Amino acid sequence: MTQAPISPEEARQALALIETTTRQMRRALAHGGAPYFLMIWGTVWLVGFAATHVLGPESPAVGGMWLVLDAIGALASFAVGAYLGRRAPSPRGMRLGLYWLVWTVYAALILYFARPRTGDQLALLISLFAMMGYVSTGLLCRSRFLVGLGLAVTGLIVLGYVAWPAWFNLWMAVWGGGSLLTAGLYMRWAWS
């Protein structure tokens, strides 16, 4: 059984449909929570890692500072999720929220029992867990952008930790936090 060849007009229509679908998907992501969550956590990483570099990763003040920044990030994320959920209820949004809650609990348990030896090792592992979350969220939502962002930032995290350990936290502020913040801004304004 052979299939009739597709005409040039049918090919143009199919490509136009793909382009329209891609544009609509990007617009939906831009108006959903993804850009806001990226901007929130990009800012948390930017401020937190920059402060960690200045204070020193083993400073007693670093743990408390990260606790406050993470609490602010979590509250801001919850507020954005609740607002978006009221504006446009979505079972997918609720599932993603639960996914990230479960992810956080498991990451915390793994880190507790793994007991990283240094502050930088702890930061490395938390950052890698976060990028695993972005990649898996991208796979679940069929977002090549989130998958690519997660993989790119993972590469940057490992490169900074291995190649410039003395500058790891400053590296993470710029390339980790800066990448997330820039990606969120890009999604929100370029895809709208």
Description:
The protein has one domain (18-190). Helix content is 85%, strand content 0%. It contains seven helices and no strands. Helix 2 packs antiparallel against helix 3.
Write the SSE topology.
Elements: H1 8-31, H2 34-55, H3 60-87, H4 91-114, H5 119-140, H6 144-163, H7 168-190
C-alpha termini separation: 45 Å
Count of all domains: 1
Supply Rg. 20 Å
Query: What is the structural class?
Result: mainly alpha
Biggest sheet details = none
Shape: elongated
Mean pLDDT: 86
- Total number of strands: 0
Oligomer category: single chain
The H/E string reads HHHHHHH
> Beta-strand level of the residues, as a percent range?
under 5%
In helices, the fraction of residues equals: over 70%
Number of discrete helical segments: 7
Q: In terms of per-residue confidence, which ranges show pLDDT below 50 for 5 or more consecutive residues?
A: none
